[in-house]
Amino acid sequence: MTLSAYCHKKGFTLEQYKTLAQNIDTITTALIQQIPDSKKGHGMYYPITDILPYNTNEELKPFYIASLKSKGIEFYDNNSLWRYWTMKQSGFYSYVKQNTDIKTKYIIEYTQDKKVFDIMGSSKFNFDMLKKLEFDFLQDAINTYNRLYYNESVLHVMLFEQIIFDGEIILEQCKDMIAENILPQVIKQRIEAYQMENEAYKAENEKLKKFLAKYNIDMSRVNQELTE
Length: 228
Description:
alpha+beta
């Protein structure tokens, strides 16, 4: 349904329709301006609640989404996820042979759903159950892949490369792009050291929690007193 059809159904006057359209345009422009740089231009998708407030009128939500799309916001997974490309992508095709259609696609398949993860490898599993992200350029795919790989809520993630010639996939392969497998040895050693240090801190933190609980000490009060 278009906004004009919605307003007609609601019995709005022409002036009310124009006001609503202008409000939606103004609000979506402001929402885009508030997007932090950390969520711009790298291909990562975010929940729609990160850009549209929880209290958004459900009837008007489709029109906000349509307005955001017209301003460059890309939506995915039935409009539940969004991303904003503001920077030039990481490459370009400098040569294309006439009458030939050949391209490379990078596809990330992942899930955060434990029910899906638990049936992977069984006859109940279907690859359509996985969420999918597509990229034209490898660097964009690698950036997103590593963010997902190190996201503790992601239970499974894989990156595939497809070579498509005249609409037919002539090569498909899995790409191992985990940072620890492609980084120089010295960087890998630093990462391992940080991980060991982090695990040590976690263990000490658990011991401290148990000690405080034993003597009925409220950790929130401790934090409050330490910050005052």
